[in-house]
Every structure is written in C-alpha cells, then in structure tokens.
Specification:
Helix content is 61%, strand content 11%. By secondary structure, the protein is of the alpha+beta class.
Length: 500
C-alpha cells in the first residue's frame, strides 16, 4: 500500500517538474516552442515599444523648440531674388522715351540772343524755342526710373538683429530648456516603466505556467484518489457516497485546470504583445519564478545592484514637475516682457536692374542699401498684454501647486513600494517550508485514508492545502522578484496607477 502511495506522489511531482511546454495542450501541436529568458525579453522590449518611441519623438520636438527659441539671439539673414514682368503700367501715359518726344528734343535748339542778327530772325528763333518748350513731355526725365519698366530684377540681402526685448528671448529659451529636461525625464521614466512592465508580464506568465502545472498535478492526485476509491468500492471497502464525492472533487479540479489554462494563455498574450511577438507563436519561459530569489538577469544587473536614491526629490515625477514649474515661470516672464520696448536693427542690401531686354547684364544693375533702427513701444493693446500676464501667472501657480501635490503623492508611492518589498520578502520567507510540510501532510492523510483511519474529507482538505501551499510559493516568488525590480527602478519610475 505504501508503495502505491509513494508511486502516486512521485507521478504527481514528476508532472510538476516537467517542462512547461509538455503541459500546455494549446501549444503541444505547435512545433519548436521558442525559448525566452527574462534577459531576452528585456532586450526585445525596447525596440518594440511604441510608448518609448513616442517619448523619444517628444524629446526631439523639445530639442527643436530649444533651437528655435535660441535662434532669436542671433542675426536673421535672408537672401531674396525676384523678377517682375510688367504687362500694362499706369505710368505708360505719363512718361517714357522715344517717339515724337525724342525727335522734338533733338530739333529744338537753345535760344541765345544774337545782336548781330536782324530783329525778325531773332523773333523767329524765340518763337521756335517757345514752341519746343511747350511741346516737350514733362515726364520724359522719369524714363530711367523703375516706374512702369517692362523688366525688373531684384537681388537682395536682408538682415535683422534684436537689440533689446525686455528679457523675452532669454526667458523663452529657458522655458524651452525646461521643457527639454521634462521630455528627457519622461523618456527615462517610460523606459523604466517598460522594464517593470516586461518583468512583471514575464513573471505573470511564468506564474500562470506554474499555477497550471500545480492545478494539473492536483488533478492527477484527485484522479488517483477517485480510482483508488472506485477500486475499494468494487471490493466493498468504500460506500458509494465516497465514490461520488471523489468523482465530484476530481471534476471540480478539472474546472480549475481549464481556468488556469485560460489565465496562462492571457498572460502569454500580454507578454507577446509587449515584445511585439506573433500572438500564435509558442513560447517556453526559461527564467524560473520560484527556484531562486532573484535569477541572474544581465539586463537588470546594472539596475538592481546600483545605489538607489529613494528620496522624494530624486523621483522622476518630482523632477518632471519641477521642470514644468520652471517652464511656466519662464513663460510668465515672457508675457511680462511684452510691456517693455523692443529695439531691433535691420539692414537691406539690393541690386536692382531694369533692362530693356529680358536677360540683363551686370552693368544694368544699381545698388540700393538701407540701414534702420526700429523701436516698438506698446502704448495700447486693448488689455491683451495684461490678459497674457494673468493667464501665464495662473498657469505658473497651477504648476507650483501640482509640484506640491506630486511631492505628496510621490512620498506615499515610495513608502508603498518599500512596504510591498518588505511584505513580499516576508511572504517568500514564510513559504519556504510550507510546501514541504503540505506534501508531508498529504502523504500522511492518504495513508490514513487508505487504512480507513480518516475520511475522504480529511484527504481532500490535505490536497487543497498542498495546492494552496504550492500556489502561494509561486505567487510569493513572483511578488518578491517584481517588488525588487520596482524598488530598484523607483528613482526613474512614474507614479503607480491607482490613485496614490
């Protein structure tokens, strides 16, 4: 009889020790399950994460804002080139060259009095001069100006430099730099959150795998009890009630196995989604969840073994809130700077050409160069500047209040993470001997039941305690490992969700 008991327990324990892929009916039909360690999962997670990619683009956008704000310190230089063809001009009737005007100009001589000439000759010369003057085009001298020219070319170079803006440019640059710091902190926080999510998803999948093995092992024990009770019933050693009870207990355990299979499949789908792996591909997890307190994971060594600073000011949420408060304070300075005069220096250099042909020669161009100093003073804006200052002041105060709120929530979040680690460590320590004791208790209960000393209720209770002990051990291992990684990543992690 004892040999049968030992054989039954050995079969159950060997089932628990089999590779995970041998116990997954969903994946048994799939070829060659892919072995995946936690270190492999962490290496695959970063390039597969859309959230990290979005945070990286936010950093790039913030860096662009810094460059844009800083550019106002430097001169702005623009080159221009233009060509204009005049089809019909309003100046065509007022001036121009050629035609009768040119002929009249060449046939008219300047009147000079000659005393030696007869009076009649001098009078004819005077009358001819008067007729020439009255027949000339008064706008003929404007023919060389740009008005109404058919072809107009302009090659220009415009430069401007802000000399004084009331501190607006400096404040704008500092606000952009604060936004860049905030974006970089958000990127680091997103990477830390991804590491924690992948670690937790991996251990959740490993735990679901382990719980499925435990449920299947318990089902084997329940089925063994049912078979033994059925044999005893046939020889008249057990009543029909015990057979029915053993059968119900076994069938109930089958329901548990089905639920564990579903939980395992969901956990694996979550892990595959984080790693961007095919959802239908089989996986075999190689990092254990209960064999050691914290397995050797190269990707986590630099994190777990570093000197941790869990003070409130060192946490990423607080640093990000401080950067946001600094940004809004600088934007308030930008709004206030609009009240001061703005002084700027500008210069425009151009080469202008009005050739008679379409293609000009360099000799057709003339130079036009101006330098100007502009002072812009806001005398009346209808309340716009005051409204901007009021809105910026409210936003800056809101950022300061949020900073205080973030400090309070971060302090609670830090203490909560440390408390979870303490509880997980205590639960792991207390579960070390529980499994062995539960296995020993079940062996004794089965012997007592075989010998007729105890009832099937006692055996079922012992089996249930064994299943709970094994499940608690696996859960404690998962909780301890994820709690340690959480505390190690705590300085860079965002606040935990759930309203802390």
């Amino acid at each position: 009889m004892r040999t049968q008991i030992v054989s039954s327990l050995a079969m159950a324990l060997s089932l628990m020790a089999r590779p995970a892929a041998a116990q997954r009916p969903v994946l048994d039909t799939l070829p060659s399950p892919t072995a995946l360690s936690l270190d492999d999962a962490l290496r695959l997670a970063l390039p597969a994460s859309e959230a990290v990619a979005i945070a990286e683009q936010a950093v790039r956008r913030a860096q662009g804002d810094v460059k844009k704000a800083r550019s106002e310190f430097f001169p702005q230089l623009n080159g221009t080139a233009s060509y204009t063809r005049t089809l019909k001009s309003q100046f065509s009737r007022a001036g121009g060259s050629g035609g009768s005007d040119s002929t009249a100009a060449t046939s008219c001589n300047r009147f000079t009095g000659d005393p030696s000439q007869p009076v009649t000759t001098r009078l004819d010369s005077l009358e001819n001069a008067l007729n020439c003057v009255t027949g000339l085009n008064p706008f003929a001298a404007f023919g060389d100006l740009p008005f109404g020219q058919k072809n107009q070319y302009r090659l220009g170079l415009d430069a401007s430099q802000v000399l004084f803006a009331g501190g607006r440019i400096r404040a704008h640059t500092r606000a952009a730099q604060a936004g860049e710091r905030s974006a970089k902190i958000a990127l680091t926080a997103q990477e830390a959150q991804l590491t924690l999510d992948v670690t937790q998803a991996y251990y959740d999948a490993a735990l679901a795998d382990q719980l499925l093995l435990i449920a299947q092992g318990t089902l084997l024990l329940a089925d063994s009890t049912y078979q033994q009770t059925l044999v005893a019933r046939k020889v008249g050693a057990q009543p029909e009630f015990d057979v029915l009870r053993a059968q119900v207990s076994r069938d109930n355990q089958r329901t548990t196995v089905i639920q564990r299979e579903s939980d395992r499949e969901i956990a694996f789908l979550r892990l595959k989604q984080l790693l961007n792996l095919p959802l239908s591909g089989p996986l075999r997890l190689t990092t254990p969840v209960v064999d050691s307190v914290l397995p050797v994971v190269p990707a986590l060594d630099s994190v777990v073994n570093r000197q941790m600073d869990t003070t409130t000011d060192a946490r990423a949420p607080v640093r990000q809130a401080e950067a946001a408060a600094e940004e809004q304070a600088q934007r308030l300075k930008v709004a206030r700077a609009e009240r001061y005069p703005a002084v700027s220096l500008s210069s425009s250099f151009a080469r202008l050409g009005y050739p008679s042909d379409v293609l000009p020669a360099w000799s057709d161009f003339v130079t036009d160069w101006t330098v100007g100093l502009t002072v812009k003073v806001p005398l009346f804006t209808g309340g716009r500047i005051g409204g901007n200052v009021q809105a910026a002041s409210a936003t800056a105060e809101d950022a300061r209040i949020r900073l205080r709120q973030t400090r309070e929530r971060t302090a609670v979040d830090t203490r909560s993470a440390l408390e979870r680690l303490r509880a997980a460590t205590a639960a792991w320590a207390s579960s070390q001997s529980t499994v062995g004791q539960a296995e020993r208790a079940y062996a004794i209960a089965e012997v007592r039941y075989r010998e007729g000393i105890s009832t099937q209720t006692e055996l079922a209770d012992a089996r249930l305690l064994l299943e709970q002990a094994r499940a608690n051990r696996a859960t404690a291992g998962r909780d301890l490992q994820t709690a340690r990684v959480r505390v190690a990543l705590l300085p860079d992690l965002p606040l935990a969700q759930g309203g802390l």
